[in-house]
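Data availability (excerpt). All sequences and predicted token strings are deposited with the supplementary files. A representative entry, Phage terminase large subunit family protein, is shown inline so that the format can be inspected without opening the archive.
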Amino acid sequence: MLSPEASAEPGKWDTKRAEFQRGIMDAIADPAIEEVVVMKSAQVGWTEIINNTVGYFVDQDPAPVMVLQPTLEMAEAWSTDRLAPMVRDTPCLKARIADPKSRDSGNKLLQKRFPGGQLVMVGANSPSSLASRPIRVVLADEVDRYPASAGQEGDPLELAYKRTTTFWNRRKLSGSTPTIAGASRIEAKFLESDQRYYFVPCGECGTFQALRWEQVKWEKTAAGGHLPETAWYECGHCAAKWDDSDRCAAVLLGKWRATAPFNGIAGFHIWEAYSAWVKLATTVKNFLEARKKPDTYKVWTNTALGLPWVEKGEAPDWQRLYERRSQELRLGEPPEWVGRITVGADVQRVPPRIEASVWGWGEGLRSVLIDHRVFHGDPAVEDVWKQMDAFLQEEWETPSGRRLRMSKLAIDTGDGQSTTHVYGWARRHPREVMAIKGVGSFNASVPVMGPTWADLTVRGRKVERGVQLWTIAVSIFKSETYHWLKLDQPLDGQPHPPGYIHLPMGVDAEWLQQLVAEQLITVKNKRTGFSRQEWQKTRDRNEAIDCRVYARAAAYSIGLDRWSAKQWARASGQVLRRAEVPADAAPAVEPTTQQSSPDPDAAPSSPTTKRARAVNPLTGRSRGSFLKRR
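Structure token line:
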């Protein structure tokens, strides 16, 4: 029984509402099939498939059952929000699983006993919950969200599957929305299976076919505007137009067909075009919105199409980038639209030096290379850090005379030999400098993580004003950078697309070759059999792309991704420039021992600089109390 708390259509379960689910659930009970894999989109009733499977092995075929969720918290939520209402409203289950409030029930939140078996709910992030216990049926939910290892024990999915070894009639079910191609657990499992797709008949020609996104069509206006509400599915054989009712009628008559040899694993792929709860117009509308940004397009591919996202890691052609350098831009001079400046710095050993790229940012995360500097010297010697001290105080002037200083500098902590020296310098400049460490994961929840405290006392306490270490997902920022480098130049009079990277005159061929010096490749782990994607260098020197990634991480850390158009207008001087301040207005900044930034939102250049007491020239009110709170 579907409960009102967990379903939009409460009442008795009816498989005909989603006929494609029948083949998946029948495969779970098929004695010839040991493992079932489902690579899916959202909105296909996957949770109800798990619920029905649990109910089957409680009522019809009692056995020890394990439901594996990505975390213990999610396991508890599933027990409370899904399992408990189903047991309460389904008479046959209520008769077999005792009320947990009963003194002699033996039931807990994550463990339910019933005649002939038990149901345990565990989290993939908890090694102790995966400890040795005999399990005949493992139901693994959202396996692509599992950690790579459960503590030090290894892959949590394989640990759970090992619990079934002693059962001749074991069953293993795993399902998930996929993530990154080559790094997705569910994709790897699906490719090992017989790869079944759901074929449906055309109402006109009767030809069976698997639904494909390429066959979803919609009309456009004469000016090229999209009309998602006109969406239809076009038969791949006779070009007949199916509306939503035709599509749902075809799904009722569909059949699962394997496209690869069967080797004991039944694999199913299903996406939202088969769902009666999703209209084609909604899918198209979501697609048109998602494709505006790489991150949202990736999520749409995973959750709507049920397909892994293929990272296009081909490096842009450096000759093309060289030819499209802007004649209006010069190194050392930020254009007027720049509102913030961040810097990425990379420590190199041979020859010993620090390279730094200065990037300017504008609305829509448009960016421009302002400068690239090389500071020669051994990081173990103080001289090079004195050069970096002076670099922190530098300013860059726009054509109108507006002066900008860097808002944040992100510096790599190196390979170990220079780490303590980088920490020492970052410790002297806690406001302007962020010490970073890169990781290659594509599955990071956020691209900039942390901080963690690098300075601790002998008792493990954080040292006040000590060094903070930030972890950045360099793979995500590299993919983003290469995507933005491939954006086409706009036609005359058209705005630049969000993320467009401007390259000024003065950028040489060597720097551009460093910017595109890496390639995304798929590497297979011989021990586990899983594949992963990683960036590898195609030439020895790649400082330009590293510095770009670090500067991008600095921009992310100060919140530029979340800025509104109004914030960008204020930062770039479009709201109120110095020349526009009335002559009788109060002075914007009281005199200090050091020239402060004209931008009232800019951070002080050093923790030793006296705080400026800014006055709003429009209202005449002092911002001193606000700065003090900051």
